[in-house]
Amino acid sequence: MMKERSFTTRAVKLNYLDYGSPSAQPLVLLHGGAWCWQEYLSLIPILARGRHVCAVDLRGNGRSGWTPGEYRLQDFTQDVVEFVKHLHAPAVLAGHSIGGVVALMAAARCPRRVKAVIVEDSPLDLENYQKVVDSSRDMFGIWLELKKSARSERQLCLSLADAFQAYPTITSQWIMFFAGCLWQLDPTFFDVLLHDFSEFTTGYDYKDIFAKVDCPILCMRGEPRLGAVMTDREVDWLKENVSTLSHVPIEGVGHLLHMEEHGQAPVQAAIKAFLDRIQ
Predict the structure, then answer these.
(1) Which of 7, 32, 120, 140 is spaced 20 to 30 Å from 253 by Cα?
(2) pLDDT of res. 166
(3) Strand 13-19 and strand 25-30: pairing?
């Protein structure tokens, strides 16, 4: 049965979904920024077959604790490192967007506790990461303003529907899901990211990280024309420099990948095939 549990790190109490046999191979899922573990809800039943799935709410997100002013990549990474170390066996780390970056950083910090890494459309190069952040500033501002003005999650849901009415690909299900995520989000979550990017990325260098990570890596990316953020240059670098890489392009979707209707099945198939190979 699916059950939410908590794990306390040195800095914060993390909420996570626990599903599957505790004695099975651990699979730790890390959501994208401003979302929560339910991002993976449609994939979990399949991925949990023969595995112990732990889908974590990053600090400041979902039902995990808030740590105002401490939302840097190294803060998320420290939480995940501590979480992984308490598991009974080396884990597979899977992350979407910022979750993918954190998964890689955690694997570099404790390589003996990480069996493999799955990355879904994460910006790797700092220059690209900065561009993604800059292009998202207005959107983040809208999210926070709607959150600030809403008196309830239901009102926030209606406000999001109004704000995104010009986006035909935005579904009712997505609006309801994201309203729940945004309602639970620490309103200071984006402060360091938006106002001190160098501090947010302290200690992050993707080339150094990949030099320390020698486990199998699956990288998936949607189509840049539809909003995928990982660049061709980054993909080419991975293919040339990471001998353990498996790269799977996901067609017909953008950055949201498995959260989009056309992305769920191919992402699920790619992850399952990857996990089957590394058993």
Answers:
(1) 140
(2) 84
(3) unpaired
